[in-house]
Design a protein that fits this description.
Elements: E1 5-10, H1 18-25, E2 37-42, H2 51-58, E3 61-66, E4 70-78, H3 84-87, E5 96-101, E6 104-112, H4 126-130, H5 132-138, H6 143-156, H7 180-188, H8 193-202, H9 213-219, H10 222-233, H11 239-250, H12 268-303, H13 305-317, H14 321-341, H15 344-357, H16 362-370
Antiparallel strand pairs: 1-2, 1-3, 3-4, 4-6, 5-6
Helix pairs in contact: 9-11, 13-14, 14-16
Length: 375
């Protein structure tokens, strides 16, 4: 199987200029940049530039995926719009990193799934589906960061390690109600479904718990309102985020989606125990479900036992290969029922009767022997 690497860069806040597109086009003979971004696909070889530098100079977002299990998402933010102190607690592992880059900040999320690679992947569409995470993070929604942190936490730590005493970052609200971009993020980075489920039980629901926008707007001076309207007319990027932050400053109880609400910080040891308990409960529930289904199936077989023996005999009497297969399936079910009812001796007697009656049917006897119905 050939290699597959997919890079997509996106310009969001302002379109690329002709000069910038010419420069980007020179990076690869297959590149076809537009004012809003560029895509690079490699089956042999790889992107010959520093992805972070490319984002810093020309773009606002990048997504990378390979068929050996690597994925990477990079966002560039205006430095004055990012709460670095709020984001840094999620950067405990090298897979989540945030660094200053001039007037901007680069958030870099990456993951190498060494055991999950090797299958077919298709990178197109991922970045478009996740692009909403950029503004969400600026609004204080750190759900993707927490879920990625949780994934790394379980991968790197064990309960008996000294590091398991480290404290978790704030648990964002809304983890029990995922939106489209977050679902795509979970898929792209292979975040375990059990982790998502258990995180949802820790998280309160709902965005923007504390901010009364109407009340805050009433406190916004008229000259500022007019200034925001003029900036809106001029198409200033991220203006909604900037207005929200200004309203939060004016609101006594302003808080974003990133506030933890009711969840007190725990150590990693406790988190790992809760995840293990959740998985055990889920396994037990699945075992109970399967056992219920098994007993219901056996009960149905018991109610139709006589008719099933008759049907098996009718099928065998047709002396056709396909009919033998159907008969053997029925006889296998009846053996399972006999084992459950502790009547295997009676079952074996009926099987001997069949073999005696159809002693010349070598094909039937072979199929019964292969199914474990005879010695």
């Amino acid at each position: 199987m050939s290699e597959y690497q997919f890079y997509e860069f996106r310009s969001i806040d302002k379109p690329l200029t002709e000069t910038e597109m010419d420069e980007i086009a020179s990076w690869s003979s297959r590149a076809d940049p537009t004012p809003h971004g560029a895509v690079f696909v490699y089956n042999y070889g790889s992107f010959g530039r520093d992805e972070l530098k490319a984002v810093e100079q020309y773009f606002d977002a990048m997504f990378y995926i390979s068929n050996w299990g690597s994925a990477r998402l990079v966002f560039k933010f205006p430095r004055d719009l990012v709460d670095l102190e709020a984001v840094r607690p999620y950067c405990m592992f090298e897979e989540i990193d945030i660094e200053k880059a001039g007037e901007n900040v680069l958030l870099d999320i990456s993951f190498d799934d060494e055991e999950g690679g090797g299958g077919w992947v298709e990178g197109e569409g991922y970045l478009s589906s996740m692009i909403g995470l950029r503004e969400s993070i600026l609004r204080g929604d750190y759900r993707c960061l927490y879920l990625m942190w949780l994934q790394m936490c379980r991968l790197y730590f064990h309960r008996n390690e000294p590091q398991s005493e480290l404290t978790e970052p704030p648990v964002p609200s809304g983890l029990n109600k995922l939106d489209g971009p977050l679902k795509t993020f979970i898929e792209a980075f292979g975040i375990d479904d059990d982790l998502v489920e258990v995180a949802g039980t820790w998280s309160v629901e709902g965005p923007d718990k504390g901010l009364d926008a109407q009340e805050a707007l009433g406190k916004l001076p008229t000259n500022e309102k007019n200034e925001f309207l003029l900036r809106l007319l001029h198409g200033e990027p991220l203006l909604a985020v900037k207005l929200l932050k200004r309203l939060e400053e004016l609101s006594r109880d302003g808080s974003g989606l990133g506030d933890t609400g009711e969840i007190a910080p725990r150590n990693i040891r406790t988190i790992l125990e809760e995840i293990e308990n959740h998985e055990n409960r889920k396994k037990e529930a699945e075992q109970r479900r399967k056992e219920t289904e098994r007993l219901e199936r056996l009960s149905k077989l018991a109610r139709n036992e006589k008719a099933l023996w008759e049907k098996a005999n009718r099928l065998i009497s047709q002396k056709k290969s396909g009919a033998y297969d159907d008969a053997v399936k029925i006889l296998t079910d009846l053996k399972t029922l006999a084992a459950h009812q502790d009547t295997l001796a009676e079952y074996d007697g009926k099987i001997r009767d069949i073999l005696e009656q159809y002693s010349r049917l070598s094909s039937l006897k072979a199929k019964m022997r292969n199914a474990g119905l005879t010695g």
